[in-house]
Amino acid sequence: MEQDIYDSIQRSLSQGRRLYWVLLDPDDFSLEQGAEVVREAEACGADAILVGGSLMHTDHLDIFVAALKDACKLPIILFPGDATQITRHADAVLFLSLMSGRNPNFLIGEQVKGAPHIKRHNIEPIPTAYLLIESGTVTSVEFMSNTRPIPREKPGIAALHGLAAQYMGQKLIYLEAGSGAKESVPAKMIGAVKSQVEIPVIVGGGIRDAQTCAEKLAAGADIIVTGNLLRLDDGIERMKAIAATIRSFPQ
Ligand code: 1GP
Fold it and tell me: How far apart are CA 231 and CA 214, in angstroms?
């Protein structure tokens, strides 16, 4: 099984580079808009494009991902809300287990349904422990997954989920406040998870400006994800500022 993209993540991080992934929900963009965003993302130094959403109702996922592939050289990594969000045009897929929850459908059910499609299309699966963190409101992923997030004031609980995930063979940990979160993942929680694990830690949800991004990097985040800010009028400018912050870290 190939793991080119995972290896390149590890290589970059081992050289001291932190990474920036830009998330596009295909429900929010036309093909032309998506292509334009990924061109901008590539130009400002993003490292990969994530595609997915908790509840996707578009029927253009296939051609959307193909259009993004044509528009840039960045790896396109699926970030699926369920097993229907697999397309052959992607380079890799975050093979997510919602380990903060206790809903078997998102621990093993969707994974069994998605696995044969991933194998058939030869997409690189990256085993990823997905930990949902309380963020001040009920997010789409919380509602759709019917799971409770980890309380934001309990970094120790998050850290032990991270440790267990690593022992279970996960290759990445994704600390997720949820798209459009009011409050992003607390720095103290990122630090607590980092102190327990050796695998890379992704942080996303509610990061809309460079200062918030810098706080997450300082706390130990290896990979930053932003998505929702692209809906803002100055979304592209915000994306550029965040990319610059990540590229220049540590100062
Ligand atoms: C959501 O972590 C991602 O799954 C990104 O969150 O859309 O709030 O940037 P935002």
Answer: 21
